Amino acid sequence: MQEQKKIILISLVTGIVLMLAKFAAYFITNSNFVLTDAAESVVNVVASSFAFFSIYLASLPRDANHPYGHGKVEFFSVFIEGALISIAGAGIIAKATYGIFHPNEIHDLVIGAVIIGATGIINGSLGYYLIRKGKSIPSLTIEADGHHLLTDMVTSIGLVAGLMLIHFTKIGLLDSILSILVGAYILFSGYKLIRRSVGGLMDEADFDVVANVVKFLSDNRREAWIDVHNLRAQKYGNELHIDCHLTLPYYFDLNKVHEEVSLVDRMINANETKTELFIHADPCLPKCCHYCNMPDCPVRAEPKTIDIEWTMDRVIRNKKHFEQE
Q: Domain Cation efflux protein cytoplasmic spans what residues (predicted)?
């Protein structure tokens, strides 16, 4: 968690410095187009500040009021960032539209382009770093902040190109028109972050996580694990929660059942992601025999005749595999 705080702090300090540079470029050029980037940089600073607090909150241990921990605050952090980006985009569009009817004189566009270009390079480099770190830690907040900075880099590239176009064509109206286009792009980026955060807050299924869990269980399948079904997986911050039903031979005693369930827990937690499992043990039925791998089973009703592949579609259903045939 200290690494997450350090990364967000770097992003926050960098954002403040770049924000000042962009506003300096705006005051030099008096360009609405430059103001679009400066306004978004304010969002970067505010979002990074909230992200720093959310990571601190997500690191707090579970308590009676938060039995699943505080990791969901990261989704709220992403929502705030997306909302701020959307507000910035809408504000940029409104001001640029006003500028079409009430144009203002712009100047020193080359100096502004140099400043914006430099900030774009820094944001792009930092954004790639945050995305890589966000995926490896993992942290949705840091990853979202990285995507935001990449959006800022793309915006800066468009700004530099647009400023040069205005400089060489001397068409002042382009300043407002290009600002509207960039504002629309920023607004769409904010919508995507909001959509992702709402999905997390509503416990929307993360099929990539589920698919990885199913593949891991399938690759490490033991003979006693007759089938796995009703599997659900959800991420809260850097923690993963898995619920599933595991069908075991009905003649296993409680100690043996506990041993198999604990083995699943240990195997999944052998990787870097902290995982909490709730595994319900189901007894096998005679109809399971035709796909059961247990050797020398003392109660087998019929020989094994088929292999049933553990796929995501099959494993997430709340039915034993023979009931799905």
A: 224-284
- 41: nearest Cα among 85, 75, 78: 85
Put simply, whether the predicted model's pTM sits higher than 0.70 gets the answer: no
Domain stops at, among 157, 181, 201 = 201
Nearest residue to 117 via CA among 165, 168, 160, 147: 160
CB 45 within 8 A of CB 12: yes
Which residues is 294 bridged to in the sheet?
none
**C-beta of residue 77 within 8 angstroms of C-beta of residue 141:** yes
- The two three-digit tokens of residue 140, written as one number: 């949705």
State how far the Cα of 122 lies from the Cα of 152, in Å rounded to an integer. Answer: 10
- SS3 readout for 225-237: CCEEEEEEEEEEC
d(Cα 234, Cα 143) in Å, to the nearest integer?
A: 17
Regions in the chain scoring below 50 on pLDDT: none
Residue whose token pair is 């103001």: 35
